[in-house]
């Protein structure tokens, strides 16, 4: 009887297995040869893949391999290529005309994969939300990045720059300094004390290392999930080891932002601040309208709840520090390898600021045109966000091919910024590309480090202000000597552009001539 029971179980298991296989095969055939969208997809240049599974196994790669995989396909197909697995379709585009068609159209504003994979962390904040919620949040948060607000924030940005310069001074004389840990702590402190109105006291600083580690872990989890189609389904991902690792990292991330929100609430309550214009609204410093204050005010008006505040704080804490830190690290590394460019920046900074020791004003930073060109050229070569995605809910023609509805469109900024017909000798660092006479006729969607269209980066002016302040301060006080070379950099697919190995430079004090 026992052997009959075992045989019966094996028989049932075999039937289930065969049924699953049959469903998989039939589904694959349907989505490829019967479904109208699948037939359209088949006409777009794409990797052949394997029968039934298509490209499902082509992307089973680590972060470094995945980044290089896309670069290799770009070199092979140039304008457009597709990837698919079962009912998931991805079209990768590189032509600025196609990019404009997607980013400038209001009906192609929707985000889906991979942004939905970040919902456990960022909820449906400004980065991820769609439709009416996105419109409401964008309208709500835009005043926090008004020119007048940025001008007030510059005081704090300059203060943080000075603190960073003091930390760099401690690195002078060392053979090399690793950039990211140094820079990331500074940019995190800047976003905390400006947009969040939170002082980085020791009790908050104590959890920053866990915060950085958690972001790095989450980035790896995101790319791991993105490269495995079966994990696109939430229940399958939830029971995976990667999901358990992600949940542990999320605990640290949410702990940090909840502490920021709690501290701000208590400060407002203790100091009886009732409006956003109080003179003492940022820990005893001059009046600065913090984004978090704006959210707390909107909560009183019933326009946002506590969960909504948390998801926006999580979004801006990440976007406000990690992307800027990435941009600064790559720029410092590259400028250390460009001595002529470095000297020209120094000459401009000295010319604009003269011999004074004061921090630059908004107007003075605006006068640093060559530095701005250098920042733009660095963002061209090293865009902090190397690709973005949109989903199209109607058929659209791209590069002469009809792309079916419900397809994910991946826009590869990293490669667009290296198009040889637009940027001759694309790997060379040539800031003059961005002088008005050289850039005015360039396609507007050939340079999109902050995305473009209605869903462009809301904080791009803040980011440029911080990049200018920090770079002007560093070049004014220190000489940058190369350690890591550009050709040594190996990139990795991540939440933002990452170098596989740490980047290093050598800082030395500038020798300032003394006038007699």
From TrEMBL:
Q: Does the keyword RNA-binding apply?
A: no
| This protein's UniProt keywords | Heme, Iron, Membrane, Metal-binding, Monooxygenase, Oxidoreductase, Transmembrane, Transmembrane helix
The entry marks the following residues as binding heme, namely: 457
**TM region(s), chain numbering:** 7-31
Cofactor(s) required, per the database record: heme
SUPFAM superfamilies assigned: Cytochrome P450
Give the GO molecular function terms.
heme binding; iron ion binding; monooxygenase activity; oxidoreductase activity, acting on paired donors, with incorporation or reduction of molecular oxygen
Is this entry keyworded Oxidoreductase? Answer: yes
Domain of life of the organism in this record?
A: Eukaryota
Give the record's family classification.
Belongs to the cytochrome P450 family.
Q: What does the function comment of this entry state?
A: May be involved in the metabolism of insect hormones and in the breakdown of synthetic insecticides.
Its name, as the record gives it, is Cytochrome P450
